[in-house]
Amino acid sequence: MRNNMKRFYPLVFFVLASCTSTLNDAWEETKTATRSMTRQGLAYLGLLDEESRIVQTSQEIYQMAEEEFIPLKDQDLSSQYMDESYPQAKENSTTTAKRGSVGQEQFSKPSSTLATIFTTVYFNTDEHVLSQKEYYQTINRIASYMKKNPHVYLSVEGHCDQRASEAYNLALGTRRAQFVRSLLIKAGVGKDQIHTVSYGKERPASKGNTKDSLTKNRRVEFKIFQQRS
Amino acid sequence: MFLKCKLLAVLFCSALFGLEKSSPIIVPLETVKSLPSLYFSETMGNGQIKPDYKETLLEILQEDIQQSYHFDLVMGKLDMEPLVSVPLQKQVKELSAFKSDFILLPKIEQKKFILKLYESRFHTSTVVGEFPIKEKLDVDRLAMHQLFDALHQKIFQQSGIASSKILFCKKTADIDGEWISDIYEIQQDGSFLKKISTSQNYLITPIMIPKTKTGSDYEYLFVSYEKGQPKIFKGHSKHNQSIPLLPMRGNQLLPALSPLGDKIAFICDASGKTDLFLQQFHPSKGAIGKPIQLFSKPNSTQASPSFSPCGSKIAFVSDKDGSPKIYILEIIDAIRLQKTPPVRLLSANHKESTCPCWSLDGKKIAFCAMSEGYRQIWVLDLEKKIEMPITSGPIDKENPSWAPDSIHLVYNTTGQESQIYTIDIVKQKPVKLTEGDGISHFPSWEQR
Predict the structure, then answer these.
(1) Among B126-135, B171-180, B253-262, which stretch is predicted with the lowest mean pLDDT?
(2) Selected residues 156-185 of chain A with any CB under 8 Å from a CB in chain B
(3) Which domain, by its residues, includes A165?
(4) Domain B165-445 homologous superfamily, CATH
(5) What's the gap in Å between the CA of A167 and the closest CA on chain B?
């Protein structure tokens, strides 16, 4: 009975919001409220983004953090770090050193033979979680290749469409890239083989404001660097 | 009944012993301070300068005075020089009928512009400054702006903004079609556009570090993609070298400097989440100690920090409750508790609000929000709790940054054209600073 009632929350919210705003505003508010309630509901039931539920141990988080920054010590630390939170690779001792301090310019788009493996994945509006099954297959393909080729390093580039502000998109791009990185690590790729870069909406794949253009820009692209053995 | 009797007894006693006479008399005082009046004496010789050019110079000075919104300006043809040059006793007598707080006495001697100021209160006249007239408009305009800023400093103990600079970045495609982004500086009036970075890399979000020494050189913070991941660097306007600020993993983005220049807030995903961080900073020593994680929430993105004037609070963007909105946190709460602190939602009136920028007077926060289908610059008056759009029109605007006077703002347009504009919150008339190809964005006004 209580669950049935919950289904009507968005409708009730829509009706209440309609009283004070334009129809468009009310619809946007309702979408936001629905998304928030869905997230909270799924989190409560333990079903939130199954692929991204990567719980770090407190020890691991603190060890990494205390070297470089003073972390928050919330009591619910494990729940804080329950989403797509694999700490970034440490630069001096891992990725950078191993790949010989290469700059981003030495990472390049995969050659034509590898292009079928490292295909771009796309996101829904304002989402950082992949929704389509084919993209998870892409991640699995990339993970298999990376595991077989430990001398290959991957740059995961997060991009956004042009609707949100430039500054917010720079931050949102980090989350998209982090999500894909966490999937790859979970699939067995070495943490130090992958780093993320956020470009926000700085480098659109498609200009214009059509739905198709916007979809093409909400993406994660892959660039690789192969260390000479 | 008992209470009523007690009240009557108190009133009777107070009337009897005259207690009411000793209670304070409250006189409401005028709380809105009127602007000081400034008489601008236009009567002056031409020296060796053409009359038209002299008029142009005076117009520049007059414009600076008007745009500052700090004076009640009265233009006049009275030659005040003889009056302020006479002995003090006669001066007081002659000028007592003259109601202006200040009298401005510009003068051209041969090819030199001299600005004198007479202060009615003290009956003193002093030379504010002077400059040699080069008869090159850009050069003389800048010299006049500097002279006005000196005048502002003399009267208000705070420099004007007429000669202040704005930093921004400009994105262009190189010969191979690859995007590069450089940092430029420009005077607030749109003159002296100059590229200050030469890295042929991808540099964004420049902010000027408040100067500790006089002179035209300065240092600035920016984000560079030179090392692959975006990192915060410190650069110098003259020396072509930049140094990374923080030895911290991950994407370091959107740095904001406190007005006192002692703290930096930034966004970083070192922990695997897009969190808000704080770093102690010294303009010459750089980062001091380790960064402090200030705000982190599951499934949320933090962005665009901006300090309050005293540096104790930060306004920032978070989508922790759904869509991106602006929140305010007390830094001390996060540091003292070492816990994600409680935050206050700034405004619930917009479904999305981003890019907060706190004014130096602490009374206003500029931000971006949608209005009639386009992203516009809004200003929230923190005292009156009123918010209103400052810009309008069918083009998106972003990244507002306050001038030190807390009246002017700089921002950029996005979409069909990305250019830099300034606007003041009184007249709300935008002034375009940049032209041409490329995408000019992330402007930041010099803090003084």
Answers:
(1) B171-180
(2) 162, 164-168, 170-172, 174-175, 178, 182
(3) 101-226
(4) TolB, C-terminal domain (2.120.10.30)
(5) 6
